[in-house]
Amino acid sequence: MPILHSTGCNATILSNTGERVGETKLSIQSSEKVTSITLPQTPAYHMIEFELEVMCHIPSVLPKPSDSERLTNGEVHRRTKSKHKTDSCMAYIDQKISIDCPWSIYSTLIALTFYIPFKAKHSLLSAGKRKYIQVCLQNMSDINFNVLDHHLIEIQHRPMLKLLSLNMKATQLIYSKQSVFCLWEMKWTDVLPSCLHCVFSVSFSPATEEESSFKPYSYEFQLENVSTLYNVKAQILPTPGVEHCHTGSLCSLEVSITRLSDLVELDRDEGLTESDGLCTSKLMYEVVDNSSNWAVCGKSSGVISMPVVASATHKVQMEVMPLFAGNLPFPNIRVLKYLPHHSMLTIQSDTDSWIENDSLSIDKALDEQADNSSIRSRTSTHSTGSEHKGLPIPRLEPFSPCQIFNSSSGEQVLVVPSKDDHVLEVNVT
Asked: Is 251 left (phi over 0), alpha (psi -120 to 50) or beta?
């Protein structure tokens, strides 16, 4: 919490009756944590008044307020509960300044309250290979603010990267406890960097002031694993000869995993293998339905060997059964990194089968285990691991959210109810 001061900081000298005697300049020297102020020579029983501006760096996580704190002199300082704080739900943070005077053996503790005007958070959005940066600015105070000049810059100023603003209004009014969203599209001409360091800035002023004096607000954040590596697309087809899917009938689920880019720096990990000049990486896919709309029949997971080449595609087919009628969302499809085993790490998979072979090159021992475990229930997965204590266990590592794009997310399929031949008898008495 540095103290801001200028070279022309003045102090006012007052007499013991409160009359102004004169004005003089202060000598202020600041370091990172200590500020030394040299007071001017003043007659006895006179007062010196001066103002200091203090800047508070608001942490990302606000500290929890404590009921009591211990001062420098060992006494217990109890927080005075302000009526304004009790009645207001305005977010604030308390900081303290300790004042040491050469004529006193005790330290004086001064509490400073900083009210937080905004809270910002960011998100990276994807639409295939296209990327968008969204910043949410939330008004944390009890008053309304006018904001203008939304800016987002990349600190390293790469010439191959441009941030195209999609914000139509230059000035916006943010009501109390409300939020506004700002959006930028990323445009690049070369390989997209894996990490971006960005700063969002905006000017704000209370909406109640007639002559607005805008003050700056900035929010700094970092984006990692920006590039989209794989596109996942699913398609559900009814039984041949039937127009729609029916409840209780098997349907065909086809999952297509497509590589969107060539080898990048993010792929150079321990799971990358090279054979005949072609680099491949192993992926594990998993189909689950947390909403209980579908029953996955047969295997629900497997390991594939994907060439690290743009447009490389692998398709997997399985059978699913709809349990309800209506427009049902697709089951969830997860794609994970399948890395070599490590002697100190073990995992517990929550899939229906620990590892499933999809007619691809994996270890023979794992292939045999997959055939046996595909017919076992979820509760018998742990017994499989105990039977193969000497078998090295691989590691599963999730991708970053923006590295996998599910183009079927949000899609639905129409399921009609099956014919019911039962007769309902109703007796009226």
From this structure: beta
Task: Please give the distance of CA 294 from its chain centroid, rounded to a whole number.
Answer: 30
C-alpha atoms less than 13 angstroms from C-alpha of 262 in its C-beta half-sphere: 3
pLDDT in tens, 304-343: 988 888 899 999 999 999 999 999 999 999 999 888 775 3
> To which H or E segment does residue 383 belong?
helix 381-387
Residue pair 351/282 in contact by the 8 Å Cβ criterion: no
CA angle 74, 80, 84 (to 5 degrees): 155
In angstroms, the CA 210 to CA 212 distance is 6
Tokens, residue 20? 């102004």
Report the C-alpha gap between 351 and 362 in whole angstroms: 18
Q: How far apart are CA 140 and CA 46, in angstroms?
A: 42
For the entire predicted model, the pTM comes to 0.67
pLDDT in tens, 243-269: 899 998 999 999 999 998 888 776 666
143 class by beta-carbon count within 10 Å (0-12 exposed, 13-18 middle, 19+ buried): middle
Question: What gap in Å lies between CA 40 and CA 47, rounded to an integer?
Answer: 11
Comparing CA positions, the residue from 393, 375, 394 lying closest to residue 385 is 393
